Amino acid sequence: MTAYRKLYIGASAGVGLTLVLLACIFFLKQEQKWPEFPATAVGPAPLVQLQVERDFGWRTGDAVTLNIFIKTFAGTSVDVEGIALAGDFEIRGDIRLDSRKTEDGGKITRVQMSVQSFNFKPAVSARVSMTWNKDGEKDWKEIDPTSIELHTSATYDGRDNLQEGKLQYLQGFHLWVTLAWIVGGIGVVIMATLYIRRETRNLPVYVPPVEPMSMWVWAVIRFESAWTKILAGDRSPEVFQEIDYVVRTLLMIETVALTHVEIALSNHPFGKQGTYIIKACELVLFRGDKLKDSQLKQMKLCFEQIVANKVFRNAAGELYSR
Asked: What's the rounded Cα separation, in Å, for the pair 132 and 137?
C-alpha cells in the first residue's frame, strides 16, 4: 500500500468520523430536554407543565409548537385523548404522543401539538385541561387547568419579570460544531488535493487539436507549390493540371466542361479570373501549347485577386483565412 493510499484512507476515515460526529450533535440539539418534576411530589394527582420555544416575538398566525408534559404516578392514568385546549389558540395538524418511565414507577408523557392564533392583540393565551383517575375507579377527576401566555412584542413588552445581572450567552455545541466543520473542511481539501495531484500525474500530455485547414488556405498552399515549380522552369502538364484542379475545386466547378466554365462562373465575383486560369491550363493540357511569361504572370495575378480578401499571413508568415 502506497503512502498516498494510506493518507487517502486515513483522511477519508477522519472526514467520515467528523460527519458522524456532526450528525450526532445535530440530533442531540434537536432533541428537546424533558423537564424534571419535583422529587417531593408523591401524587396521586398528576403534575402538568407547558413549554414553548419562547414567550415573546410571535406574530398573528404563527405556528407555535406547544409541549405538554404530564407526570403520572404509579396506579394512575390520564385521559390524554380528552385533553381540551381553550383560549386564543386552535390545534393544527396531528398530535404527537410519546412517554418515558420514571424510577418511582410512574411515567412522563409528552403531548406535542402545533397551534395557531389569529387573534390580533398584544398577548394571546392557551389553557390546557384534562382528567385523571386511579386505576380501577370509574370517577374521573379534573386537573387544575394549566395556562401560558405568549406576547407579540419583539423583545421587552413592559412585563415586570426582568432578570438582573449580566446577560449569559448559552454557547451550547456551537463552538465544537464550528471546529468540527473547520477540521473536516481542511481534511477534505488535503484529501482532494492529494487525489487530484495523483490522478493528474498519470494523465497523458494534452495535445491541442489541430485546427482544420480552410479551403482557401489549402488552395493557396497548393497553388504556391505549383507556382514554385513553374519558377524553377517546370512547365510540364502535371503542374498546370494541379493549378486547374485547385482553381476548379476552390470555385466548386470540378465537373464543369471547359465550354461551360464561363457560364458556370457568370455570377461569381471572380468569374473572369477563374475562367482565365482554367482556359490557360486547358491550352497546355489539351493543345500542348507553351504559355508565355505574360500569360503566366496574368494567371498568377488572377489567382491573387481571387484569394486577396480571404487568405492572410501573420507575423510568423503562417497562412490563415477569415
From this structure: 10
Q: Which residues contact 163 (CB under 8 A, 6 or more apart)?
A: none
Residue spans per domain, the chain = 3-28+174-201, 34-151, 215-321
Residue that has been written with the C-alpha cell 456551537 in this structure: 174
* Euclidean distance between CA atoms 231 and 239, whole angstroms: 11
- The set of residues, in sequence order, having a beta carbon less than 8 Å from that of 289 and lying 6+ positions away, is 283
Yes or no: say if 46 and 76 are a contact pair by the CB < 8 Å rule.
yes
Dump pLDDT digits (tens) for 58-108.
888 889 999 999 888 888 888 888 888 889 999 888 888 888 888 878 888
Determine contact, residues 307/321, Cβ cutoff 8 Å.
no
Q: How far apart are CA 113 and CA 81, in angstroms?
A: 12
Q: What is the four-CA torsion angle of 189, 195, 196, 201, rounded to 10 degrees? A: 150
Question: What would you report as the CA-atom Rg of the chain, rounded to the nearest whole angstrom?
Answer: 47
Alpha helices in the chain (DSSP H): 3-30, 174-201, 215-231, 237-250, 258-264, 271-286, 293-307
What is this structure's pTM?
0.44
Q: Reduced to 3 states, what is the DSSP secondary structure of residue 109?
A: strand
Q: How many CA atoms lie within 13 A of 201 on its CB side?
A: 7
- How many whole angstroms separate alpha carbon 151 and alpha carbon 208? 69
Which CATH number does 34-151 carry?
Answer: 2.60.40.10
The Cα–Cα gap between 218 and 307 comes to 11
Q: What CA dihedral angle connects 222, 224, 228 and 229, to 10 degrees?
A: 30
